[in-house]
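Workshop exercise sheet. Pairs work together: one partner reads the sequence aloud, the other fills in the structure field after running the prediction. Swap roles for the next sheet.
Pair: D.N. / O.F.
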Amino acid sequence: MAGHVHPRQLAFALPHAESLTRDNFLEGPANDAALALIEAWPEWPSRSLLLVGPEGSGKSHLAAIWAEQSGARSTAARVLTAADVPAALATGALVVEDLREPDVDERALFHLLNLAREHEAYLLITARQPPSALAIELRDLCSRLRALPVVSLAAPDDQLFRALIIKLCADRQLVVDESVVSYLATRLERSYAAVQRAVRLLDAEGLRRGRAVSRALAAELLGKT
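Structure field:
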């Protein structure tokens, strides 16, 4: 008689809730300056600012906090067109997310900066690199971006790194104990993106296997001790 074959459990990429409120923002030395500037609005050194930091460092979270305070609209830099600019500035405040080349219409962005200055609107632009590292071809835009005040987000310290692991697991409703947190905190590259990748992998694999996320599973997937 043929043996019984157990079907493999399928893992579905279900959406998970990520809270972007002020109460759920993880504070630390890496982001103190940026958070202070967001909370100081409208007392900014300039009406247009650049918020720069690596992937996963909290730029979008800070932008969401500011948008709630200021009534700002939000748009991705890659979809901004010149025709969109007047409507985008309708509330007098705008978040432009993830500025990077070549995924930006340079003339549209230059038009936005000019119109924002003319109308005395507020702009918060997020990017992974400072303007000096961007290959902007439009010279006037390059000059304008380099003249903007920049506030940077740094790599997380130990306390913030552990807190980030716990938060990202909680966002995905993963119940993890201290052994899992400690394992990840001591084995992962010290970057926001590394934590995001690890938690995403643990979530998907735990769901696929029908197992709780444990230190043993983390060690299996992320490297033996």
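Discussion prompt: The longest helix spans residues 192-209. What would you look at next?
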